[in-house]
Amino acid sequence: MPKHKPEPLTRAQKEQLETELADLEGPKRAAMVEAIATARSFGDLSENFEYHAAKNEQGLLERRITILRDRLDRAVLVDETVATDDAVGVGSKVEVEDEQGAKLQIEISSVGGVSPDSPVGRALMGARTGDQVRIDAPSGAWLARVVSVT
Questions:
Q1: Average pLDDT by consecutive 10-residue portion of the chain (150 residues)?
Q2: How far apart are CA 127 and CA 87, in angstroms?
Q3: How far apart are CA 114 and CA 32, in angstroms?
Q4: Distance of CA 142 to CAs 66, 98, 114, 123, Å?
Q5: Structural domains in the chain?
Q6: Spatial CA neighbour of 69 closest among 118, 3, 12
Q7: Strand pairing partners for 95?
Q8: How many CA atoms lie within 13 A of 63 on its CB side?
Q9: Three-class SS of residue 144?
Q10: Whose C-alpha in 23, 117, 118, 125 is 20 to 30 A from the C-alpha of 8?
Q11: Could you tell me which residues are beta bridge partners of residue 96?
């Protein structure tokens, strides 16, 4: 994802990312520093599995922090009060029905839901109740009917 691309988020989604970032930068980072110090006390670092594992975990933690900071820097709040005639947008909860009649609940969100940039998200963005959309997924294209949008 390009660094300059805005990331539309609802207020709740942005707060969720901020909460996770605060947890990672605070208690989780402090625990990681302590784990590294403890592992270091075990002796020779060249053969110290605990030390290398802790350093690896620290790298993963720091990468997640970098990703969260980037997402928050690019965040653009979506005005949830402006509903456009039940059209699907970021933050929408959508019920779709596939060609076999199976129903699926989807939330359009890059935080804990279906990303608006995914094949399903792109197909549903702007759709309204009753619309039929073609979803070009990696496993093959399929048709879905929008049952409801909230």
A1: 76 94 97 94 85 95 97 89 73 93 93 91 95 93 94
A2: 5
A3: 31
A4: 36, 8, 17, 11
A5: 7-77 (1.10.287.180), 93-149 (3.10.50.30)
A6: 3
A7: 105, 148
A8: 6
A9: strand
A10: 23
A11: 104, 146
Which amino acid would we find at residue 83? A
85, burial (CB in 10 Å: exposed 0-12, middle 13-18, buried 19+): exposed
Encoding tokens for residue 61?
């933690």
8 Å CB contact between 147 and 96: yes
Residue 149's contacts (CB-CB under 8 Å, 6 or more residues apart) are 86, 87, 88, 92, 93, 94, 127, 128, 129
Give how far the C-alpha of residue 68 lies from the chain's centroid of Cα atoms, to the nearest Å: 10
The pair of structure tokens assigned to 77 is 């709040």
* Amino acid at position 71, single letter: R
Q: What is the pLDDT of residue 83?
A: 53
